[in-house]
Amino acid sequence: MIRGIGERSVISDEAKQNKAILQAQLESYAAKGLYPFHMPGHKRRLAPAPDLPYTWDVTEVEGLDDLHHADGILQQAMRRTALLCGARRTWYLVGGSTTGILAAVRAAAPGGSEIIAARNCHKSVYHAVELGDLDVHWLFPETDPDWQINGSIRPEDVQDALEQHPHAAAVIVTSPTYEGVLSDIRGIAGICHAAGVPLIVDEAHGAHLGLFPGTVFPDSSVHLGADIVIQSAHKTLPSLTQTALLHWNSALIPEEEIAHQLDVFETSSPSYPLLASLDGCTGILTSDGRELFQDWQKRLAHFHEAALALRHVHVLCYGKDRAKPHPAIHASDPGKLLARADGMRGRELADWVREDFRIETEMHCGRNVLFMTSCCDTDEGFERLIRALRELDRKLSVPLQHPCGGKPVREEEAAAAAPDSGKAPESGGYSAAIGAKIPGLREITGTKRTGIASALRSPSAEVPLAEAPGRISAEYVMAYPPGIPILVPGEEITEGKVQELFRLSREGANLIRSGGSGTGRCRVLKS
Fold it and tell me: DSSP per residue over 276-305, as a string?
């Protein structure tokens, strides 16, 4: 099996053979001694930075292949990955899941079409709507009020949306979400196909799902009936950043159209080191994946047992939280550890584990902190996390040892950190108190007044955020990560949205604006 960082790397001979297929081809080509009167400009002689695999960085030359017209080594590599994942066809992506989402939406929904999409989709779905000038009808996820996260998309809501919008060209949902929340994809796919509508699933955070039946990891949308599934291999599998996969299983979207749209949205100069990473990932999983996943499962089970003793630190669906009802959540991915601590903001928790235990977290938003795990984690890494949470739990039980000085977060303390907005936000109706029940996206989403593309093209002006309720947004504003827009061009800005942005800002979230910079302001359509 493969050992993680800090441990000796041991890979089976079979895995070495499998993962070396594309690598061997690249090394064989480099050994031929051909002088490169072609790109890239480093000529495989001058490394841009130490340790980069620049000798593998070649263009489409004789003996290799062309990603957009693959008929050789890359075609074989993608077929191996499709076989592993259970897809009729798989494309390698070197522009992340974003490339696959743009291509899939465009292939399913030509310009000006109607689509149905989850309101908690990644920003790339919104950009696809924008580029295609699509008319989008939103599906609103249920809300888990305890954890203040989006829950699952309900199949019955998809059914209602298709009945109300029978001309929709596609349905798009995200499963799992950043926090690991899964929707009932089998049920949703059945409803979509009964209506003759394709289902596209953004499974960027679920590339590890469905690979090895019998483990605790839920099944993949690839096996549950989705037409197109996009996965980020780099998020949870042993592959380099920017590598992703698009899986096709559709009788409703022609594969030729997917190939064409990938040609439109993806670079014509794909990186061979990234392609070799995807092929190598397939080889490792084919040979050693089951053992890796079984070890991963054991580490998660050990973490659950340790979390049972925690009183002031909570982990979604782990420890004591596992026994609590989560009616808004159809299922969850056990590989995501979403944690929070009594009386602490997420940023404070993330800072504490970094400074005291040298642990870097994936994301903090509001009170929550996300620890992402994978099959490449180590026993030592999990033990370090367990020690950190145990120590924090002990400190929280002794007020004088509280990491925040024994002062739990209060609404008035948060208000002191509010951005300069021009006026204080109202507290009624949408409580800013950390830990209070908050409404879901349905409650903070305003009425759509114009399309996204039209709003972005229209005259606009910047106003203080506190004066924005009732106006129409002319920009995206989102917390990143996870990259789900709160303000969307063309939608009315509600008081709920404004209060949500103030709350996130107070809690240390990284707010991104597409139409400007600085907190406490936003861009709206001119009256």
Answer: HHHHHHHHHHHHHHHHHHHHHHHHHHHHHH
